[in-house]
Design brief:
Elements (H helix, E strand, L loop, with lengths): L5 E5 L3 H12 L3 E6 L10 E5 H10 L2 H7 L1 E3 L2 E4 L7 E5 L12 E5 H15 L2 E4 L3 E7 L2 E6 L2 E6 L1 E4 L6 H5 L7 E13 L8 E4 L5 E6 L4 E9 L8 H11 L7 H9 L4 E10 L5 E2 L2 E3 L5 E2 L7 H18 L5 H31 L6 H13 L3
Parallel strand pairs: 1-2, 1-12, 2-8, 5-14, 12-19
Antiparallel strand pairs: 3-7, 4-7, 5-6, 9-10, 10-11, 13-16, 13-17, 14-15, 15-16, 17-20, 18-19
């Protein structure tokens, strides 16, 4: 018998849909409430480390993810300049273990569609255009208001509704994401045959320029700069900024700029950091994923950590008979130190870039965190 029979999930991102898949597979009645009118994800790419792939396998979606994405070993470091000289070819720690590639990339909307399809196939109900607007609790349940009206009573509410989580606010958690001082331009472009894995350029006019393959003929390119107000920027201006800021980088960036001129879509976001201290739950409501923690993607662990949150939580809910303090103690014991290590390391790597600290041991920090992530959550 599971600890819950009926669960509400706010948010249809990777954490919410991963939790929906696992609970529905176990026979739990699952309602997912998504405030947006339809499934959406920023139309660029996402980097997935091996420990994320290990979770996909546990969810039963790895075969679909592998077919839709592009997976590889290692990392290439280049320097600015017309020839984009290779500085180093680095091996990567296989954080998912020997059965999975070290890392990979895929188109974000493709990942969202795969997870939604599996959640619905498992029996979860996903309601778009449905915003959680109220939460009230008793010892044995959570009553929800959705779009201002009653939506039912559940054994548990999982707030997986992202950085600006409504559930986090409704249950009285005051921790909120804070900007780190960095912003990122992303564009979804074609992949030159020469690009077979992620490549990063350090130095030049931005903190980091790079790209990650997402498919046989696609990849996403990015430029990390000091964060600026970019709200009023038009699509044409966004492209012009990426063209200007990438001008110092040669090699495959020549192909990227050609795609930008041809109308590749560009988006811009700020990096944030936050970590909700334990407990992440208030009674029978809990936040996971970006609602509970965020960090710069300097070690590309954001999606993996959100997926691990969902996997650990649902494992406990399926294995236990009751939702009690011991369940929450084990959940926080397994998740908080790991998420904290990723947040702190990611923020530190970004700060070293901001400070132009040439003595920093970035490689050592990344290597250490990668080995820690290689241990299952």
């Amino acid at each position: 018998m599971t600890a819950v029979q009926k669960v509400a999930i706010a948010g249809s991102g990777v954490a919410g849909l991963a939790a929906a898949i696992q609970l529905a597979k176990a026979g739990v009645e699952v309602d997912v409430f998504e405030s947006k009118a339809e499934l959406s994800a920023l139309g660029s790419g996402i980097t997935l480390q091996g420990n994320a792939l290990r979770v996909f396998d546990a969810l039963g979606v790895w075969d679909d993810v592998r077919e839709a994405g592009y997976f590889f070993e290692g990392l290439t470091l280049r320097a600015p300049g017309p020839d984009a000289p290779v500085v180093a070819e680095l091996p990567e720690v296989k954080t998912g273990g020997p059965d999975f590639p070290a890392t990979g990339g895929m188109y974000r909307p493709d990942l969202a569609r795969i997870l939604l399809r599996h959640a619905e196939a498992a029996g979860a109900t996903v309601r778009f255009g449905s915003k959680v607007t109220g939460v009230s609790q008793t010892d044995g349940g959570v009553s929800l208001d959705v779009d201002g009206g009653p939506a039912g009573t559940y054994d548990l509410l999982i707030g997986a509704d992202g950085l600006n989580s409504v559930v986090r606010d409704l249950i009285g958690i005051e921790t909120k994401p804070q900007p780190t001082g960095m912003g990122i331009w992303r564009a979804f472009v074609s992949r030159p045959a020469s690009v077979e894995r992620s490549e990063l350029y350090y130095g030049g006019p931005v903190y980091i320029a790079g790209y990650t393959p997402t498919g046989e003929d696609t990849m996403y390119a990015f430029l990390v700069e000091p964060s600026r107000e970019r709200v009023e920027i038009t699509d044409e201006q966004a492209v012009d900024i990426m063209l200007e800021e990438s001008a110092a980088y040669g090699g495959p960036w020549e192909d990227i700029r050609a795609d930008l001129r041809d109308g590749a879509h560009v988006n811009y976001t700020w990096f944030t950091q936050h970590l909700v201290p334990a407990p992440w739950n208030r009674g029978r409501a809990v936040v996971i994923g970006d609602a509970a923690h965020s960090c710069p993607p300097t070690i590309a662990q954001g999606a993996a950590q959100a997926l691990e949150d969902a996997l650990v939580l649902t494992e406990l809910l399926v294995e236990r008979d009751v939702v009690d303090d011991s369940l929450w103690d084990e959940f926080h014991g397994r998740r908080l130190p790991r998420a904290q290590a990723v947040v702190e390391a990611s923020v530190q790597l970004g700060q070293w870039q901001i400070d132009h600290d040439r003595e920093a041991d970035a490689a050592g920090l990344i290597f250490g965190i990668s080995h820690r992530m290689a241990e299952p959550a």
